[in-house]
Amino acid sequence: MKILCKSLLVFVFSFSVFAYVEAQSFGGNAHVNGGGTTVEFGTKSTFVFNAIKTEGGIVGHLVYHLRAYNVSFQMNLDCMEIRGNRATLSGTVTSVTGDNIPYYIFPGSRASFSVEDNGNGRNRDKISDVVFGAQCNWDLNTYLKVQGNISIR
What are phi and psi of 144, to 5 degrees? Predict the structure, then answer.
């Protein structure tokens, strides 16, 4: 229960940060952001992310809670490839917590994930698995339906 409350608090804080960032002007810069839940291994996972193209490159962050394995990790995002209504983001893991942490998830490991923005309406947005060792130029399979919103601009 203590872990669930801590994870929920981190997600609420992260979503609050996301909402603040979303409310700010992106100044016409390309950006991808989103948050919500998806079902993996029969259990809801939660995530929130943002990435923006700046003069200095891509700046962003991901917080992901894989509840089926009681694992949470954070990443600094440093790459963003946008292709129409799809985007692939990648970066470096900065922290990991949990009981069953896979050997390939550790601070310093690199990973990528893809998202699909299907607008607001009946067609739900989608996200891929977070794939460790994948490159930013890979277009990963976005098969996980999102309860939430993803925005690509």
Answer: -90, 115
Taking CB atoms within 8 Å and a gap of at least 24, the contacts of 13-20 are 14/48, 14/63, 15/48, 17/48, 18/48, 18/49, 18/50
Q: Which amino acid is at 84?
A: G
Report the candidate in 96, 98, 104, 100 with the shortest Cα–Cα distance to residue 134. Answer: 104
Integer Cα distance of 134 and 140 in angstroms: 9
Cα 36 from Cα 38, distance rounded (Å): 7
pLDDT digits (tens, 9 = 90+) for 98-143: 998 999 999 999 999 999 999 876 679 999 999 999 999 999 999 9
HSE, CB side, 13 Å, CA atoms: give it for residue 3.
10
The closest of 148, 153, 152 to 36, measured between CA atoms, is 148
At 7-37, the pLDDT tens digits run: 544 444 444 444 444 434 456 789 999 999 9
On the 0-12 / 13-18 / 19+ scale of CB atoms within 10 A, 98 is: middle
Give Cβ neighbours of residue 26 (< 8 Å, ≥ 6 apart): 52, 153
> Which phi-psi region, left, alpha or beta, contains residue 137 (left: φ > 0; alpha: ψ -120 to 50)?
alpha
